[in-house]
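sorry to bug you again but im stuck and you know this stuff better than me. theres a chain ive been looking at and ive put its sequence and its fold in token form underneath. id like you to explain what the token line says about the fold, in plain words if possible. anything you notice is useful, everything is just below.
___
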Amino acid sequence: MRISELPGIGTKYEIESPKGDKVAVIFLTTGEIELYVLEAEAEKPSVARLTPEEARRVGSVLTGAMLMIEREGVEVSFSDISDLRINIYICPVTEGMVGKSIEDLAIRKRTGVTVIALSRRGRSIISPPPETVFEEGDLIVVIGEREQIKACAREILGRG
């Protein structure tokens, strides 16, 4: 890989395959990313201009970590473990959860999901302990299989 600084433009990363295909990625000072692909026998490269979010998604695809985003959730799959699907779901704490702890609600026991994070008044709590009591306005992040997420929505959140 060759790395070049392009004064006033950004930073360029170039890779050449054994077949002579070239890929260049330029991180522009504007925050956008340009992706150039020049096949070995081609005269002109193909060019795509990406936002940082689009570039991250392409990077995830290239590394085998596929993300499928739907509403408040994300499904992650990995190319090396084709049958593994991990779902991450973000949801607001419901009125029926306020004043109760993760342990009181037996969230994992009842649904199989694990509460991996909690957002409270702009502060994140990663891996909240079972005795964590939910407050109004909290957002929780849970992880599990698709069916476990559905069970959590139904049994804990009261969403059919």
In short: Residues 68-155 form a domain with the Alpha-Beta Plaits fold (CATH 3.30.70.1450).
